[in-house]
Amino acid sequence: MSSVQSLKKRYVVQTAYLITAFVLLNYAFAQDTSLSTAMESITITSRKISQSMLEIPYSVYTVDNDEITAKNYRTTTDIFRDVPGAMSQKTSHGQGSPFLRGFTGFHNLFLVDGIKLNNAVFRSGPNQYWNTVDPLSVQRMEIVMGPSSVLFGSDGIGGTVNAITKQPNVDEDDPKFTMFVQGTNASNLNIQGLAFEKSITLDSAIRVSANRKDFGDIESGESVLPNTGYDEANFDIKWLHQFNEGWNVTFAHFLTHQQDVPRTHKTVFSVPFNGTEIGSELARNLDQKRQLTYFRVKNQELSLLTHFNAVLSFQQQDERRHRVRTGDRIDNQGFSVNTIGLILDSGVTVNDLGILFGTDFYRDSISSFSSSNIIQGPVADDASYTTTAGYTELHWSARNNLKLIAGLRYSHISTRAKQVEEPLTKQVISIDKSWSDLVGSFRAQYKIGASSILFAGLSEGFRAPNLSDLTRLDSARSNEFEIPSVNLDSENFVSYELGYRKRDTKASIDLAVYYTNIDNQIILFPIGEVTDNGEIIITKSNQGDGYIYGSDISYTYELTQHISSHFGLSYQYGKTKSIPQAGSVLTEDYISRLMPLSGQLSIKFASQRANWWIEPQIQGMAKADKLSARDKTDIQRIPPNGTPSFMLLHIRGGYEFSNQISLNWAIENLFNKNYRVHGSGQNEVGRNLVASIIWEF
Q1: Out of 432, 470, 629, 694, which residue is the most buried by the measure of CB atoms under 10 Å away?
Q2: What angle do CA 413, 416, 422 make, to 5 degrees?
């Protein structure tokens, strides 16, 4: 047995022992486990049906609206900084995406009210798509770790995130206004928002909200990061009508517009960090607009069926990029994606057997342009990408305490692109490709008493190549230029997980160990040529076999009625095959952007009248020195010897003046540390004073 195999085996065995110890300890010292609590009553909808936390054999984390406002999360990406197993990287102020269990970009699936935001142009690495969802419109974020391909298809490998937006209240007879104002100093961000909510009839209500965000230049440690500010506007409207016998319909529209967003690390305005290099471009700015409109019909009170859910949606994503390079070279490029989606799902229950089934359909229509290329823009022009799938999942209560879940999904994905540049001849070609994928999952859950569960499972996942994989023609990382690779196959993943969850009146525990096998992953590699501008030409192929394993723990304990503590810790390790240099053979290498050991510890004090609270938090990451070959060449974002470790102290608090007015405040990065999250294109904010006021009237 090799040393690597021995290490993996020892890690799995030790972690299994740790979980067993947790189970026995908590079972032995359980006191009144029959008591129901608010923690127990949380229902999760990202598994297609509403379930309590003690009914789900997956690693699941939730962040509700109260926590979003209390912790002053300004962007969707900010939310993940307190989620075990997650690392949020940023390419510019307010931009970026999370790494979930070692995967990012199009390897994570993002949903809004159950509707996919991922489309055919989503790319790998930290990107800006997640921040087109305004956290101020979110009622609850549900993060399900690990592959969810059976229920949702391609992309959801590291995790699936469902942003559940705020619902209008049918019982709100009088008009309700909510005003939100937030200001910061080091992040130089100001937010002004207003929401309106009112019942229209006895059975219907409407909610309208809008806000504006003014991102200023970041103050990081002892320096200012110039040219990092931009403006953002958000608008959403939702109408709900309830019929008799449990039927309801929802109409919703969301709009986000971000203007002149700079990618500073690519430009001469970047600030070096621990040996990183300054970019060569004079300017790189992005305009982005995303809108989502959907109509939903739903019923959860049927006699024969457990539920019925039908959603028709339309999305539009517009992206425009302006680049100014040396030698008076200017490039304007971008694309538009129009997406039509249809979701149908339902279920039946027969004795101890529940059957969930459904189908979904998405079709992307893509146009792409570039001022420097008449054939295509960043991706193929005049293209389409279509996904059709059907799935079923069986839930069997085998015994009083034992529940088994088995699922199966078939997906057919096709793409047609009429305008693609052939890399060698520079001539226009067309592509017509399709992929069929069959994946399954099996989960087992054992209930220990009334407040704890032990779960284990195997989940297959896949990711079909999208247009970004097949046809991308654009700059990539530091001094790289990617060209199309039109003959790619689907990536395949198998994830194994063992976990423990506890919810009672005192404690909340989530503990999991996982191992994911990676097969046929699409990797980038240099072909041995450079562009006229001196950039290294790279392309893609299905050669990235490997693995990643890790563990996460989240522990919250109520010391007294007014004092509670929280502890979180995450560990990851993984390798995959890569081609580090042109002409070289496949070499086992670290997974790019591998998350270092990370943790946090906090203690929260609340007054007896519950009108104020204060919470100091320690947050830290170890040095990220397990670098892939491509990490080492990403000299604008990653220091030569890896990203240094950091330890931060935050202090947050809140005060409720009345039932209508409340204040939330924070001192982030109290000691003004100059630090960077591994793989980010910019440093994080230095000492940052934050204050937000919510006024309901």
Answers
A1: 470
A2: 125
Cα gap 158→98, rounded to integer Å: 10
- Considering only CA atoms, which of 550, 523, 552 is closest in space to residue 539? 523
Per-residue pLDDT tens over the stretch 441-485: 999 999 998 899 999 999 999 999 999 999 999 988 878 899 999
Structure tokens at 149: 């391909």
- pLDDT at residue 358, as a whole number: 96
Give per-residue pLDDT as tens, 343-356.
999 999 998 999 99
pLDDT at 42: 59
Per cent of the chain over pLDDT 70 is: 93
CA 100 to chain centroid, in Å, comes to 7
Beta strand 108-112 with 159-165 is parallel
- Backbone torsions φ then ψ of 471, nearest 5 degrees: -130, 10
Rounded Cα gap, residues 124 and 413, in angstroms: 19
Q: What is the DSSP string of 314-350?
A: EEEEEEEEEEEETTTEEEEEEEEEEEEEEEEEEEEEE
Pick the range with the lowest mean pLDDT from 35-39, 78-82, 284-288, 361-365.
35-39
Cβ-based neighbours of 199, under 8 Å, separated by 6 or more: 169, 170, 171, 172, 173, 205
Q: Taking Cα atoms as reference points, which of 268, 257, 372, 310 lies closest to residue 115?
A: 310
- Among the residues of 346-474, which ranges form H helices? 467-471
Q: What is the pLDDT, as a whole number, of residue 14?
A: 43
Q: Where are the domains of the chain?
A: 3-44+183-638
Record the pTM: 0.92
- Greatest pairwise CA separation for the chain in angstroms: 74
- The DSSP call for residue 371 is T
Q: What is the average pLDDT score of the chain?
A: 90
What's the CA angle centered on 338, arms 333 and 339, to 5 degrees?
135
| Distance of alpha carbon 339 from alpha carbon 124, whole angstroms | 20
Q: Which residue(s) pair with 59 in the sheet?
A: none
Contacts of 190 (CB under 8 A, 6+ apart): 182, 183, 184, 213, 214, 216
pLDDT (tens digit per residue) in 376-393: 999 999 999 999 999 999
Reported as half-sphere exposure (CB side, CA atoms, 13 A), residue 107 has a value of: 22
**In Å, what is the CA distance from 133 to each residue of 300, 519, 690?**
27, 32, 21
The CA-based angle 19-162-55, given to 5 degrees, is 40
Q: Is the pLDDT at 648 greater than 70, yes or no?
A: yes
Residue in 213, 272, 169, 171 with CA at minimum distance from that of residue 638: 272
CA separation for the pair 675, 271 (Å, rounded): 12
Bridge partners of 395, per DSSP, are 354, 405
Predicted confidence (pLDDT) at residue 226 exceeds the cutoff of 80: yes
With DSSP H G I counted as helix, E B as strand and the rest as coil, what are the percentages for the chain, rounded to 5? 10, 55, 35
Residue of 239, 261, 241 lying closest to 251 (CA atoms) = 239
Tokens of 598: 């990370």
Angle at 432 between CA 313 and CA 578, to 5 degrees: 95
State how beta strands 329-350 and 353-370 pair: antiparallel
Which CATH number applies to 3-44+183-638? 2.40.170.20
